[in-house]
Specification:
Blueprint (H helix, E strand, L loop, with lengths): L1 E6 L4 E7 L7 E7 L11 E6 L5 E6 L5 E6 L4 E2 L4 E2 H9 L6 E7 L6 E7 L1 E8 L2 E4 L18
Length: about 150
């Protein structure tokens, strides 16, 4: 189990991990979403484990946030921060301002995630340590608001 939260005492966002055994013990490992020098503090919007449970996909701020992949047990980031606003501006082509609200890992490919939200539903892949959008898998009307998805 992974739980994302913002601590009120320091206004930082974290992901904590729990063993689902009988004692619900918290793992000593966690992800601190503290910003680097080039990033501002970001709230976690959505998280999703890969099928094997090794990686976790993290989505922050839906309008100008980032998407990242982590190997949580090693506490390392697999991908650099993908600045979603930059990528969305390229692929949306004037369709309206997209927002991404949910991220899930592809159960068949640990380097792929699916993201959805306002005017956006697309598969993304890890290319050279950054997430890049793939061509649409189906012809979707991007004027739709995609409220949820699952594998």
């Amino acid at each position: 189990l992974a739980i994302a939260c913002t601590l009120l005492n320091d206004n930082s966002s974290y992901i904590f991990f729990y063993d689902m055994g009988h004692d619900m013990k918290r793992y000593p490992k966690f992800i601190n979403m503290a910003p680097s020098n080039s990033e501002k503090q970001q709230s976690i919007i959505s998280i999703g484990f890969s099928l094997e449970g090794i990686r976790i996909a993290v989505l922050t701020n839906p309008d100008a946030g980032t998407a990242k992949l982590y190997e949580w047990k090693k506490e390392i980031r697999v991908t650099a921060s993908c600045i979603l606003a930059d990528e969305l501006a390229i692929i949306q082509k004037g369709e309206g301002k997209a927002e991404i609200w949910k991220i899930t890992s592809d159960p068949n490919n640990k380097d792929q995630v699916f993201m959805s939200g306002k005017f956006h539903a697309r598969l993304w892949r890890n290319h050279s340590e950054t997430l890049k959008p793939l061509p649409p898998i189906v012809k979707l009307d991007t004027k739709n608001i995609f409220t949820d998805h699952t594998w």
